[in-house]
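Incident log, support desk, overnight shift.

02:14 A customer reports that sequence design results differ from what the structure should imply. Their input is reproduced verbatim below. On-call engineer (initials T.W.) acknowledged and began investigating.
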C-alpha cells in the first residue's frame, strides 16, 4: 500500500509543479490525489472546455462541487505515470 500511495503522491507533485511553474495558484494534493487549480475571473466550465479541446486533457469543473468551486478546475493524479507526464506537457504548451 505504501508504494501505491507514494506513486500517486509523485503524480500529484508533477501536476502541482506544472501549474505552479505556469503561475497558477494550486491547492490540495497533500492528503488526497486531487489538485485544485485557480483561474481567477474565469468560468470553471470554460476552463474545463479549453483544456479539453486544446490540450485533450480531462479535468473536472470546480463548480460541479458547489459555488465555491467556481473559477477552479480539479485535476486527478490517478493515472499511469506516462499519461500524467503527457498531460503536464500539454498543459505547459497550452498556457505558456
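02:41 Re-run completed on a clean worker. Output:
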Amino acid at each position: 500500500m505504501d508504494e501505491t500511495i507514494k506513486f500517486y503522491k509523485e503524480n500529484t507533485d508533477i501536476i502541482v509543479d506544472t501549474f505552479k511553474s505556469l503561475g497558477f495558484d494550486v491547492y490540495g494534493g497533500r492528503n488526497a490525489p486531487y489538485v485544485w487549480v485557480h483561474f481567477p475571473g474565469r468560468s470553471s466550465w470554460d476552463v474545463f472546455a479549453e483544456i479539453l479541446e486544446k490540450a485533450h486533457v480531462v479535468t473536472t469543473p470546480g463548480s460541479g462541487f458547489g459555488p465555491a468551486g467556481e473559477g477552479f478546475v480539479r485535476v486527478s493524479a490517478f493515472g499511469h505515470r506516462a499519461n500524467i507526464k503527457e498531460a503536464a506537457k500539454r498543459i505547459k504548451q497550452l498556457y505558456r
